[in-house]
Every structure is written in structure tokens, then in C-alpha cells.
Write a structure and sequence with these properties.
heterodimer; A: alpha/beta; Rossmann fold; 7-stranded mixed β-sheet; 8 strands; B: alpha+beta; Alpha-Beta Plaits; 4 strands; about 20% strand; globular; binds thiamine diphosphate; binds iron/sulfur cluster
Chain lengths: ~250, ~70
Amino acid sequence: MKKVFGRPKSLTKDPFTYCPGCHHGIAHRLVAEVLDEFGIREKTIGISPVGCAVFTYAFFDCDMICAAHGRAPSVATGMKRSKPDSIVFTYQGDGDLAAIGMGEIVHTANRGESITVIFINNAIYGMTGGQMAPTTLVGQVTQTSPYGRDPKTMGYPIKVAEMLSTLKGVAYISRVALSKPAYVLKAKKAIRKAFQSQIEGKGFSLVEILSTCPTNWGLSPIEASKWLEENMIPYYPLGEFKTPEEVS
Amino acid sequence: MAKIVVDEERCKGCELCIPACPKHIMVMSKKFNKKGYYPAKQVKPEECTGCAFCAMVCPDIAIEVFK
Ligand SMILES: Cc1ncc(C[n+]2csc(CCOP(=O)(O)OP(=O)(O)O)c2C)c(N)n1
Ligand code: SF4
Ligand code: SF4
Ligand code: SF4
């Protein structure tokens, strides 16, 4: 018998520090598999965020830099420009990318920097204990929206994939989920296309991954996956928002 | 012929692999691991098709699949 599924080489042996059932681990595995399949681990530089995924520097077995909160796209820009032959990706949560780092991501995308962004949208700040994120759904209860998010005072949840796909410098943007095997397979394809866009020098690429935070949503992992499918997917539709013809 | 191996010490007992298995042969153990989680295990190994659905949704890469 041959091993047909196991740990990708682009991950270290360290066990993930995430809570049981948190989708961050699935996202890590998919990115690592893509690095393995393209054979680019040796020339890849990852930028880890501030948030639960801060420890990605210990999990990905490639060069890693840890950026200040929200600044990963700017660090990635510097890295890619000074080493244009490298493959550069950022891995960022929705607090990191869509709140404190919204300026960085918009301008990095607009400049068409040839980097790949893995954007984890779990509709909450995970690491700091469950505060409202720009992506928190209307009516969703968090530590800082105890009566539910009220758009009158808190605005509406931001659709990052749609918003950034209006920018000319962007080559590839899609939104995926990880709550069931069929979605995981599609997510892998999207991450491949994003890295392929970068390898072919097409410009900026981003995959928004709808992800669970069972701990701060106050749900079991199975309930959290169901909540994501029933509440997040209707508001954040899955699919591709921008593709360069050659990778579609 | 297919089989899976669950790394009991990596498993965090999240149960996501249970509904993912189309053959309904993943269950939770009654004995806990060193971290205090009840790991997943397979029953009726002869029914496993090696589809790897259980492994695909495992956030801790605790399942290996052989075919
Ligand atoms: C400059 C700065 N401001 C605030 C913080 C506190 N902080 C740490 S993580 C975080 C948000 C994390 O949420 P998210 O990016 O959604 O990632 P998750 O933990 O959900 O994966 C914040 C506000 C910080 N570390 N640095
Ligand atoms: S707090 Fe939420 S996002 Fe962070 S590891 Fe736990 S479940 Fe995942
Ligand atoms: S490989 Fe498929 S059939 Fe076998 S235990 Fe996993 S999900 Fe079930
Ligand atoms: S999905 Fe993985 S971590 Fe969760 S119970 Fe199954 S084997 Fe354990």
C-alpha cells in the first residue's frame, strides 16, 4: 500500500497551536501542498500576521518573516521587489487584513504587486478573545457587539474579495470555504491558481478563505462548520471574482 | 484495499472527520490521549474506500491514508 495522503513537506513537524476544529490548520495544509506541488518551497518567503496565525513562521518549512499587525502586504512588497525571483505570500486574518491593515492591502493590490495573499475570514478577532471584525455579520454577537452588529453604528460587513477585484492591478481573486471535503478540494484549486498567477508574473492574487472560530463563536467545531455554511456563505458567496485568462 | 492511520497524539478530538466519512466508520474513542482529548478512530476498517474525506477536513493532519 502507498501513502496517498499525509503531511506535506512544506510544513514542519510542529503540532499546530490552534483550538480543536479551527480551520486555520486546513488552510495551512493546502498552502503547503501547493508549495510542494509547484516545487517552490526553497524560494518561497511567507509573511505571518498578528493573530492566531502568528505562529505560521514555525509551521511552514520555508523562509518566514513575522510582520507587525496588518503590515504583511508591505513587508511582502519589499521582499518581492528586492528578490523578484522569489515566491512571496502573506497569511492574514480579517482583523489583520481588513481592520488595521486595510490601507496596506488595498494599495498593495492596487499596485499589482506580484504576491499571493491567503486571507482567513472567520468574522471575528480570534486571538484577542472574540471582538467584532470588519467582516462580522449583521446581528452577530461578539465581545464588542454584545447586542449583535448593528449596521447603523457599526457599518456593514466588508466583502474584501469583491472590493479588491475592482482594482486593475489584481490578477486573481476568489473566495472558498473549508467546511466539507468538496469545498476543501475547490479551495486547493483556488490556492494553486493564486500561486500560479504569481509564478507567471500576472500580478496580485488573493484567496479569501471562509474559516471557523469555534472557540469565540461559542460553538462546537461541527456546529461552527454548519453556522458558516448557513450564515457566512449566503453573505459571502463562493467563487472566482477575477482571473487572468491563462490560469482560469 | 485501503487503510487510514490516526495519529492519536496529534488528534484534538474535534470530531470534524466523523460526518465527513461517507461510510460512517469514524467514531470517537472512549480513552483520552496525553493532551486530554478523545481521539478519533476507525471501526470496520474493511469498509474504508481510501477516499480521504476524513483526512481532508482534519485541521491537525492527524490522519494518513494508504491505498
Ligand atoms: C498594533 C497592534 N494592535 C493590536 C494588537 C492586538 N491584536 C492581536 S491579534 C488581533 C486581531 C486578530 O484577529 P484576526 O486578524 O481576525 O486573526 P485571528 O486571530 O482571528 O486568526 C489584535 C487586534 C496587536 N497585537 N498589535
Ligand atoms: S481562537 Fe479561533 S481562530 Fe484562533 S485558534 Fe482558536 S478557533 Fe482558531
Ligand atoms: S478514507 Fe474515506 S472511507 Fe476511509 S475512513 Fe476516511 S472518510 Fe471514511
Ligand atoms: S478531524 Fe482530525 S483532529 Fe479532529 S477528531 Fe478527526 S482526527 Fe482528530
